[in-house]
């Protein structure tokens, strides 16, 4: 597991170096546990991961109301005062979240996030858990 997190570090750094304005990147499980992070502090990354679990659930509920949708969330972008928040499905039970300032261009960010997910999506997974244990 430690080696896997070390691998995430350079992959997330590559995204941060490629898009100006990134403040923090978090890889999280569907149940809101932080898998990896780049930038920011660990406590902030844990809070982002927990909030993202609710947001991806909400986005999925809204998606299921769209005729013809399979109900799965692909990407959420929220513009906030001073920046942007991005959340993208990134593998089985895993998500990629990015917080950026206003310098980051949303189209470039979403394309770079998608490229990262395509390149390493098989590694951005979180196995299902029961009672806090991996199944």
What's the arrangement of secondary structure elements?
Blueprint: H1 2-18, E1 22-29, E2 34-38, H2 42-63, E3 75-80, E4 83-91, E5 94-101, H3 106-120, E6 129-130, E7 133-134
Antiparallel strand pairs: 1-2, 1-5, 3-4, 4-5, 6-7
Domain Roadblock/LAMTOR2: 9-100
Protein name: Roadblock/LC7 domain-containing protein
Transmembrane segments: 83-104
Protein described:
With 135 residues, this protein is of the alpha+beta class. The protein has a single domain, classed as Dynein light chain 2a, cytoplasmic (Beta-Lactamase). 40% of the residues lie in helices and 30% in strands. It is built from three helices and seven strands. It has helices at residues 2-18, 42-63, 106-120; strands at residues 22-29, 34-38, 75-80, 83-91, 94-101, 129-130, 133-134. The strands form two sheets. It has a five-stranded antiparallel sheet, with helices on both faces. A hairpin with a 2-residue loop joins strand 4 (83-91) and strand 5 (94-101). 27% of the residues are buried. The mean pLDDT is 85.
């Amino acid at each position: 597991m430690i080696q896997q997190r070390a691998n995430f570090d350079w992959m997330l750094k590559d995204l941060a170096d490629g898009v100006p304005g990134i403040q923090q990147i978090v890889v999280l499980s569907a149940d809101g546990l932080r898998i990896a992070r780049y930038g920011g502090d660990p406590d902030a990354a844990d809070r982002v991961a927990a909030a993202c679990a609710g947001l991806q659930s909400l986005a999925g509920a809204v998606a299921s109301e769209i005729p013809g949708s399979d109900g799965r969330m692909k990407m959420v972008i929220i513009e906030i005062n001073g920046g942007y928040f991005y959340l993208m499905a990134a593998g089985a039970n895993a998500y990629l979240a990015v917080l950026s300032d206003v310098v980051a261009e949303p189209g470039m960010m979403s394309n770079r996030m998608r490229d990262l997910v395509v390149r390493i999506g098989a590694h951005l997974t979180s196995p299902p858990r029961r009672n806090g244990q991996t199944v």
